[in-house]
Write a structure and sequence with these properties.
With 106 residues, this protein is α+β, with helices and mostly antiparallel strands. The chain has a single domain, classed as Muramoyl-pentapeptide Carboxypeptidase, domain 2 (2-Layer Sandwich). It contains three helices and five strands. The protein has a three-stranded antiparallel sheet with strand order 1-5-4, with helices on one face. A two-stranded antiparallel sheet has the order 2-3. It is globular. Bound molecules: zinc ion (ZN). Zinc ion (ZN) binds next to β1.
Length: 106
């Protein structure tokens, strides 16, 4: 979903200037989340009728990656430098520089 520039900067600080682990390589304005063109998902297990997020990497992540790509989405699991398995985006062919400059999808 959508993240403000401030929210993105807070996430970027994790594992760098704030405690926690690094969860993104994108500063504010450098993520498609900041323009409402990305979302993250989680694979879950069902335990006693409750959905429990499962962050361990297993074949289900690759299956949802395949499904997302079959719908025309870009999947963060395909990225080379920073694998982001929960992440999907649809850019409309627009670069982040174009979006930062104010260009928007139709
Ligand atoms: Zn994401």
């Amino acid at each position: 979903g959508f993240r403000t520039i401030e929210e993105q900067n807070r996430l970027y600080a994790l594992g760098r200037t704030k405690p926690g682990r690094i969860v993104t390589n994108a500063r504010g304005g450098y993520s498609y989340h900041n323009f409402g063109l990305a979302f993250d998902i989680c694979v879950c297990n069902v335990f006693k009728g409750t959905l429990i997020p499962s962050w361990s990497l297993d074949r289900r992540w690759f299956r949802v990656g395949q499904i997302g790509k079959s719908l025309g989405l870009e999947w963060g699991g395909d990225w080379k430098s920073f694998k982001d398995y929960p992440h999907f985006q649809y850019t409309f062919g627009l670069s982040l520089a174009q979006l930062r400059a104010g260009k928007r999808p139709p």
